[in-house]
Design a protein that fits this description.
Blueprint (H helix, E strand, L loop, with lengths): L2 H9 L8 H55 L5 H10 L21 H8 L7 E5 L6 H11 L5 E5 L4 H12 L22 H23 L3 E6 L8 H20 L2 E7 L2 H8 L5 E5 L5 H15 L6 H11 L3 H8 L4 H20 L11 H23 L4 E2 L3 E2 L3 E3 H8 L5 H6 L3 E3 L4 E4 L2 H11 L4 H20 L13 E8 L2 E8 L4
Parallel strand pairs: 1-4, 1-5, 2-3, 3-4
Antiparallel strand pairs: 6-7, 8-10, 9-10, 11-12
Helix pairs in contact: 2-7, 3-5, 4-5, 6-7, 7-8, 10-12, 11-13, 12-13, 13-17, 14-17, 14-18
Length: 512
């Protein structure tokens, strides 16, 4: 056997390498399998991405729907805010006590107008209620809300802090801003990075969408009541917020979507809004006339104490506290009405003295700014007392008290200050009505002015205070010039020239 035969026999049991044709066919099959496998994975990933996208859009759409639905539910009947307000304002609420079906113990003539605004009969306007503290503005609004069961109405209290204002607005509209914001699940920058003013704008945008959707069903506007608007600060932030509210109120009034009702005790809110107002209606709310005040007081005493007070007692009560509802309410609930009237008058007088008393000629120059504030108030109070003496009839037998009043520009001229009158209005010493007339905040306050200005030596004390203020101001404008190193009979000659000519002042050495 040759060597070639041996090698040939050894190769018989071993695996032979594939041929070139076999290698080409095998690689072609692997490529087709790989392509089919990669295309399947791509389809799966595309399907997953599509599902994620559609799920995200569905969740966001559902979130927006829920937000609008919550705001719409906030205007449905049975609002718990109305029940809480009814408890605080003595408005009967059938959900709490069915026996409390008697009407409110005093019915103002403005109540019918307020009812028409709240129930949607009056449209195309937004309204500003302005009047002194305790005249019954909030009570009328809550009474009107009770008559419609809170349907289509939402009310909240304003606040000086924009963050608190934002939270209260969100509570009234059941809009929680970032607390129910679903975008955080998808790494979207949320509204926590915005300001309070932008959040308020977002809430108004949502409210507008709800009002548009509801308008097609109910055909009357929603009502948004902002109580205590005067608590906003009269600074840049407060003015920006008030401007934002007014812009929305104008727009909504023009389209009959939302009727905005603002309630304010101070004049500055009206002064600020009047500049841009075209659809604003001002509703002044004043003290009750004499006949209505006596009737309301008599009615309350008969219902609560089962007694019939005499006409003389009722006359004395009105003479001391006037027709202010908050005072009449306190007197009507007191066993001794005349004693309560005295306490009210004393409280008002003490408040005025604590805020605006003058210190006389011995005051220190460190209290200069405070005494300017106090002396200007005393000067205006004295002017009102003198104006009352000049009146022909300061008391009308039918209408009651006629408080003396001075135009706003004249009051500023009397005080020689234009910036302080708003501060007096804010602390309830003087009040400015919608016609820009200045008067005492109430009848007890006017009585306090008369008692203080009638005290012996008051005019001299006021004049001494004003002279001391002038002296301190003059001293602050005076500069002391010291001349040194005069040699022998040396003289400094100072020449002052102005439009009237020249003046010479000679300074010599002391003793020469």
């Amino acid at each position: 056997m040759t060597r070639d035969d041996v090698l040939r026999n050894n190769r018989v049991g071993q695996p032979q390498p594939p041929s070139d044709d076999e290698q080409r066919s095998s690689s072609k099959g692997d490529d087709e399998t790989t392509k089919r496998y990669n295309w399947g994975q791509t389809l799966v990933k595309m399907f997953e991405s599509s599902l994620t996208t559609f799920a995200s859009l569905a969740v966001l759409g559902y979130y927006k729907y829920i937000v609008l639905q919550k705001i719409e539910n906030a205007f449905k009947p049975g609002d718990p805010v109305l029940e809480l307000a009814a408890l605080g304002k003595q408005v009967p609420n059938p959900a709490i006590d069915e026996e409390e079906s008697a009407p409110h113990w005093v019915l103002r003539k403005e109540q019918k107008l307020i009812d028409s605004i709240i129930n949607g009969s009056i449209q195309g306007r937004y309204h500003l209620l302005i009047g002194e503290k305790g005249t019954g503005k909030s009570s009328m609004l809550i009474d009107a809300m009770h008559k419609v069961g809170g349907e289509g109405v939402s009310m909240f209290e304003a606040h000086a802090d924009l963050e608190i204002f934002r939270i209260r607005l969100g509570k009234a509209l059941d809009f929680e801003y970032m607390e129910d914001y679903i975008g955080s699940l998808f790494s979207i920058r949320g509204p926590r990075d915005t300001t309070a003013l932008l959040d308020i704008e977002r809430a108004f945008n949502k409210l507008e969408k709800v009002a548009l959707r509801r308008r097609k069903k109910v055909h009357r506007p929603l009502v948004l009541i902002i109580n205590c608007t005067h608590l906003l600060r009269d600074d840049e932030d407060g003015q920006d917020l008030l401007e934002l509210i007014q812009q929305r109120a104008e727009q909504w009034a023009a389209s009959n979507l939302v009727t905005v009702v603002l309630n304010s005790d101070d004049y500055w809110v009206y002064e600020r809004m009047k500049q841009y107002a075209t659809r604003m209606e001002v509703i002044p709310v004043l003290d009750l006339p004499k006949a209505e005040a006596l009737l309301a007081l008599k009615k309350y005493r008969s219902r609560s104490f089962n007694e019939e007070p005499s006409s003389e007692i009722l006359e004395q009560v009105y003479d001391r506290v006037g027709g202010r509802l908050t005072f009449l309410n306190r007197v009507a609930q007191s066993p001794d009405m005349l004693r309560t009237c005295e306490d009210i008058c004393l409280t008002e007088k003490t408040w005025f003295l604590n805020k605006c008393w003058i210190l006389g000629s011995e005051m220190d120059d460190d209290v200069m700014d405070e005494q300017k504030f106090s002396s200007a108030a005393m000067v205006l109070a004295k002017a009102l007392v003198e104006r009352q003496k000049e009146m022909d009839t300061p008391y009308d037998p039918e209408m009651g008290h006629i408080l003396p009043q001075i135009p706003l520009h004249e009051a500023r001229q009397i005080m020689t200050r234009a910036d302080l009158i708003k501060s007096y209005d804010h602390i309830n010493v003087f009040t400015i009505d919608s016609k820009a007339m200045v008067r005492a905040d109430s009848v007890p306050m006017q009585n306090a002015f008369r008692e203080i200005c009638g005290e012996e030596g008051f005019s001299e004390h006021l004049d001494a205070t004003l002279e001391r203020i002038s002296a301190i101001e003059s001293l602050g404008r005076t500069r002391e010039l010291v001349a040194k190193d005069l040699v022998g009979e040396g003289i400094y000659d100072i020449s002052v020239r102005d439009g009237k000519g020249s003046r010479h002042v000679q300074v010599k050495r002391s003793g020469s």
